[in-house]
Amino acid sequence: MSALDAVPAPPPPPTVDSSSSGDDDGAASSISNEGIKTKRESQILHELDNLLAKLDKETKMKLGVENMLEVYLQDKKRTKDLESQLEAYNAAIDDTIQRIDHMRMNAGAATAEVNQRLKERNYTGNTLFITPSSSNSRSRTKPRSNSSPNIKEKQKTSQENTTFPDDDAWPIGRRLHHLTAQLRIDEWEANNCTNGGKQTADAQLIKESKLNKLETLLRILKNTTDIDTHYPKESIVTCLRQCIASPSREVRVMSMRALRHLVEGPEDVKLMVKLQIYVFIIRALSRDSSNHEPEREQALKLVRSFIEYEGLPYINQGLVRAVVSIAEQTDCRLRNVSLETLAELAILDIGLTVRSGGVRVLMQALLDGQLNMTEVLVNALVYILDMPDRRCYLRPGVELEMMIAPFTATGKGPNNEERLKNSARVVTLLLKTWAGAFLMCANNMRAARSVVQSLRIPIPETQKIVLDMFFNVFRVNLPKEYQNFLSGRQHAVHLAPASTETDKTASAAVAAAMGGRSQRSILTGGNDVVKGLWLAGDPYALETPPIDKTAANNAERLNMLDHHLCILLIIFIDADILMALVDMVKSDDLYISRKATLLIGEILQLSTRLLPIMMGIQVQSLPKLFALASNFEDEQVRHNATAALAHIDRLTRARTRLLASTQASVVNSSHSQGSKDLTSDVTRSQEKVHEVKRKIGYAIDDVHFRQLLMDSQVLNTKDYTKWSWDCISELLQGPLLNPRRLEEAMRGKKFIKRLLGFYRPFAHKFSDITCTKTTIARYLKTGCVLIKTLLSNPDGVRYLGENKLLIQMAEALGELDPLREGGNNEIEPIFSKERMENTLSCGYFTLLGVLSKYKEGVRLLEKFKIFSLFYQLSELRNRDDLKIAIITNMDYTLDGHPRVLLSKIMTSGYNPIRLFATQYLGVIMRRSEYEWNGWAIRLLVTQLYDTHLDVCQMAVNLLDEACEKQANLELLVKYRPSLGHLGEIGNPLLLRFLSTSTGFRYLYALGYVQKEMDDWFEYRNQQYVTQLELSLARALVNTPDKKTRNPFEERVDSERNYENLQPGDGLTPPHFYGELTKTEEGCNLLREKGHFQYFAKYIRSCALENLDAEVFQQLKAVLWAVGNIGSTRNGLPFLEEEDIVKDIVWIAEHSEVLSLKGSCYYVLGLIAKTQQGVEILSELNWDGVVSPNGEPEGLVVPQNLDLFLAIPNWKYTPSLSDPPLLPKHITEDPIAADILKNIGDMSNHILANEASKNLAKLRQRHPDYFRKVDLFYCVCQLLGSYHFRAPVRKYILDIFDMRFTPSLLLELDAVAHHPSSPRASSTEDQQQRSTSPLPHTPDCIENNDDRPPQPQLLLSEKSDGPFKEERVVVETLVPKCKKIGFHVRE
Fold this sequence. Notes:
- This protein is mainly α.
- The protein contains 72 helices and 7 strands.
- The strands form 3 sheets. It has a 3-stranded antiparallel beta sheet. It has a two-stranded antiparallel ribbon with strand order 1-2. Strands 6-7 form a two-stranded antiparallel ribbon.
- Helix 59 (1091-1103) packs across helix 60.
- The protein is globular, with a radius of gyration of 41 Å.
């Protein structure tokens, strides 16, 4: 009998109307006539073709409506219309299929032709499925039983592509009921009837049918929420449990996916655990990775969905140990996912992870340096170490020492260097967190001293790795040529200023706007070419020293990176790092000696900048290095020490000069706001150079001048490749600055004429040259100097206006006018896209930009209507490259057309060009910081109302940057911009307004201050802390020369996520309460509201208690609010009135929450930003760091370092694995007990080989035992309680021949739902574990139990279950020894 015979027989086929019956009777009566018969067959085939075409059309229309439903899922009105259309198409398709099936069954002699035609059209139909309610409609329900081989063959060939047109017309509950009925079919019964090891036709049919049903179920689950309202979830999970026990791998994979989509909350996880789904997950995770990788992947995803939907309370040890077994396999593809899952489990439930052996695997993975997982695992470790109730599960002085063990390993193993690099990476990441920094100080700084002492190990590879680690830890940005110094090719390193931030920002802006098409193009992000063109107009731009705006603009913001670095510096100085480095200076290895010298110099510089003066003096002394420099017994050592001192001295002098020039630039910047009369040092130096060259030009005689003209070769030939461009540049910048010499070159000679002729566009000389850095430096820069020279003399201006150069430029720009008539379309325009990218045609915009710098040049541009042409070009929709060229080359110093043109482009055009123009306006403001930027502020205020949110965000950021200057802030407040429509985007700018009395009154009148104050008091303080800690974490992880993102943040779904895009600068964001207390009006409002008194009370109430993480987060928020209030002169009296500073100091020195100690340290730094705050902290034994001129730096260091840095060892809380509960009848059976004993021995690698042989013999002798459900369940309990490696787990589970039929699944439920009573499982078990003396055996040789001991019986009464009258006796396996650090016998 077939497996499908249990399905009810189908109803009779649909009735046929009278006309059709009449036609059939007529055909039957004329069957003897051959002509009529042929005509009848052709009619049937013709009608069949029409029906098939109609079916194809209706099916396509139905698919289109389904796609529309997915698109307009949220539009209820349109969804209702589409659903009605879908029902109509379903009814039409149903009718067409019935007619086709009726025609096929009543074709008579034409049956063969009809079947052939249907086969050609790939028609599958629906004849194998019937409707449960009506014989007139067909749907996909149970397939009808039919023993005909032809029907079965059609079923097998058509199942894969079978569609069920009327399925979507059913209600969801009815569809789910139908699906669950089909999925409950037992595959094992059909699979038992094998033929030569091959599946029977019934088994294959059931498999394909289930795959189709599962695919439909998945589609329903993906598109439907609250399945429980349509159909009981327990019924769906029950039928899916039958599927995940299927012999078919594909069915199991699809079932795992369906279960994952069913999980919507913790109740669903509880339901699945109740139905023993975890047993099948353990089974799936233990399968072979080569053949069952999709199943393992889906099982692991199901476990992760349990965690995601808060089902952690229902996850047992068995599941976690299954994940641990995968994480232990170094060559497994799923290892990273498993490690990440264990890391999340460790964060959510450290106790469960420790009991399951997960922490041991995480530590080993850290040492192995698993690819792309170090950051994730370190973050999990830091989270565990932060709170005392979490780190008690780790052994003090053991886990951390495991991380630094490779530093002290003296042997050279095969992977010793790789392990040392991994350990250095882990230590670096740990030191960039507060928990890691404090743990390095535990046990009298044992860990920190071990790392420092590794510098003294005479192994060059170890020393190099550790030195590199310290360069990273101290965030040392090495000079570009330091490798020459290390290799001995250079005696000192030179500090050269990097490229200015303006150039970097501008280059990045061009690249971002144009999408990075061609690197050689000026307009498409080719940074070198772009920079060359911008600098072409100013030959001295490269000599401009960079201006460090951090000191001037961010003085009010706390640099948290410096605070963290200050503590690290104190830790390692106390660990004698300087003495270890001095010993390395004596090394014969020149590379190591000089690199140690570099690090000594950097540490001394950091100590000067970050430490209090008395502590810095002690560091600077270096008595041992001076002793080595004066030791004449060893010449090599004395030479190295002398060279080190000389290098440190040169480095100090160079940094002092660089800092002095930077501070002078900052001072000039701060004193020159809004003044055009004062000029910067750079401008004065340029004027001096010009003055010297002008004097040389006046002093040159006629003979020398004519010789220079002849040497340039311009007068001798028209071939520009033979000209001496260096000589031409010398003439233009020297002698030709003399008006008489310039007049002679213009009128008497052809020198200027030929030069200008070379630059004419239609001469096709300059305009056809390939654009490279060399051609820019030679031709374009010389052209800019030529224009400047001519504009410096009235005769030169007149000559330039009479020349054809500007006329041809205007004509070339006019070629781009789409309305121009009479143009030659066959000739490529001078400013076509290709020429702009590949030739120096783009340089004409630079030449025009030079003209826009001078009033005479602007008059020439107006004369030749070039500005009018620019206005026309700005309206072209497909030439953003021209708009960018115009924007980036025009000079905006003079009020006129360039500013109007920029405003036009900023407010018109597509979003990318508006965004670019807004961003470039920020570049303009930074370049012209010595001038009044009122016009730029007005343009940015206009951009606040742009329709594109990114443009508004950019405008807010630029205005926020501009408001660092008080004059710009006052001007912006005067304009009274409306920022309410921007929402959260405009908050930083509104906070800026609060720092001025005018802005406060303006915002108070709008009602913003009161509402914002209430929001910050309720929840915005917590959001501020979260944002600040994320920014700090990113800033600490990012090294000075390499920007990376945390892997936890790489999984953010949205690419435009704000937190994912912000790199983190380590500076505190503006705080509402900090900005509020900058004005007297704000202080009065704060006092009136009484918020500060609440903050002080909250700090005192929480400081003395160990509270949960949520309360600590709230405490951090309150601390940051108090710190920002105390960072201002007006706000510090609030702290003095409440005397709250001493409470903050107490928390910093005595709190057991490491991150809270770090937060208090930052808050004390905020308080130390005022002189009064430094004095208050000094009374509490905390020294503030002040600058040489006496200004507080916002840095503070405790006088008693041990009180702040040292943390006491905590009491280790051992967490043993929960023992399994086994029924008594299993352990009393000698054969079952022997099987369990040998399975327990498999966890011990010494006994595993013998145990596997014994299991093989037992399976051969007693195969029935390896089919028992209760014994298999006991084995799963053993796998969840003790540690088994992945191959052993696979062997154990594969040795059982479990075919889970529906009856066996019920038996599994019965076994699982009869646990021991609570009294027996808790009280008696604890008594046995605590009182019974257990012998120590060699089985307990690995951490967290390797081999379970012999079972000990424990009787109990059954508490519940379907069989109330049955007494079930269970036993508890009790471990023979506990592992507490080392093996401790009870």
